[in-house]
C-alpha cells in the first residue's frame, strides 16, 4: 500500500456510495418564530414619511429627534403583547390542560384492559361451563324435586 492520499482501504471509503442530498432542517427555535409572529406589528417608514412623523413627534415630545439616517419605526404594542401572551401563557396553558384531561380519561383504559388480561376470568373450577350444566338439567329434569 502506497502513502498517497487518494487510496482508501477497501470498505473504509465513501467512493461508490451516492451522496444524499438532504433538505435543510427547519429552524424551530422560539426566537425566529416569535420574530415572524410580531413582524406584522412593526413597520419601517422611509425618509419622506420620517419627516412627517418627526414633525408630529416634535410637537408631542418637545425636541427629542432621532438622527436623520435612521428609519422611522412604528410599533403596535397591543399586537405584540397579544402575541407574547398567546405564545407564552395561553398556548402552554391549553396544552397542559389537554394533556391533563387526556391522561385522566385515556390512560385508565389501557390499564383496565391490561388488568383484565392479567386476572383469571373465573375463580372457581367449572364456572365457564355453568350455562351448559343448566341447559342439560332442563332436559333431564335434574334439580326439580
Give a quick summary of the entry.
GO terms for molecular function: mitochondrion autophagosome adaptor activity. With 145 residues, this protein is mainly alpha-helical.
Summary keywords:
single chain, 145 residues, mainly alpha, two-stranded antiparallel ribbon, 5 helices, 6% strand
Number of strands: 2
Low-confidence stretches: none
Give me the secondary-structure category. mainly alpha
Percentage of residues in DSSP E strands: 5-15%
What strand order characterises the main sheet?
A: 1-2
Shape: elongated
Order of helices and strands: HEHEHHH
**Oligomer classification:** single chain
Can you give the mean pLDDT? 75
Radius of gyration, rounded? 38 Å
Number of alpha- plus pi-helical segments: 5
Rounded to the nearest angstrom, the distance between the terminal CA atoms is 103 Å
**Portion of residues within helices:** 40-55%
The biggest beta sheet is recorded as: 2 strands, antiparallel
GO biological process, one term: mitophagy
GO molecular function: mitochondrion autophagosome adaptor activity
InterPro entries: Atg43 (IPR013898)
Pfam families: ATG43
Topology of helices and strands:
Elements: H1 30-38, E1 42-45, H2 47-61, E2 72-75, H3 77-106, H4 108-118, H5 130-140
Describe this structure in words.
The protein is mainly alpha-helical. Among the domains are: 50 residues, no CATH class; 38 residues. The chain is built from five helices and two strands; from the N terminus they run H-E-H-E-H-H-H. The protein has a two-stranded antiparallel ribbon with strand order 1-2. The protein is elongated. 0% of the residues are buried. The model has no long low-confidence stretch (mean pLDDT 75). One of its GO terms (molecular function) is mitochondrion autophagosome adaptor activity. InterPro entries: Atg43.
Amino acid at each position: 500500500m502506497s502513502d498517497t492520499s487518494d487510496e482508501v482501504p477497501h470498505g473504509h471509503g465513501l467512493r461508490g456510495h451516492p451522496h444524499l442530498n438532504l433538505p435543510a432542517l427547519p429552524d424551530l427555535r422560539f426566537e425566529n418564530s416569535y420574530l415572524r409572529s410580531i413582524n406584522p406589528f412593526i413597520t419601517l417608514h422611509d425618509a419622506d414619511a420620517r419627516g412627517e412623523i418627526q414633525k408630529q413627534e416634535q410637537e408631542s415630545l418637545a425636541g427629542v429627534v432621532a438622527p436623520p439616517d435612521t428609519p422611522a419605526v412604528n410599533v403596535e404594542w397591543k399586537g405584540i403583547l397579544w402575541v407574547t401572551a398567546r405564545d407564552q401563557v395561553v398556548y402552554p396553558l391549553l396544552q397542559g390542560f389537554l394533556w391533563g384531561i387526556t391522561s385522566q380519561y385515556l390512560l385508565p383504559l389501557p390499564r383496565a384492559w391490561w388488568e383484565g388480561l392479567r386476572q383469571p376470568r373465573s375463580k372457581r373450577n367449572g364456572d365457564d361451563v355453568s350455562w351448559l350444566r343448566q341447559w342439560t338439567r332442563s332436559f333431564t329434569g335434574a334439580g326439580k324435586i
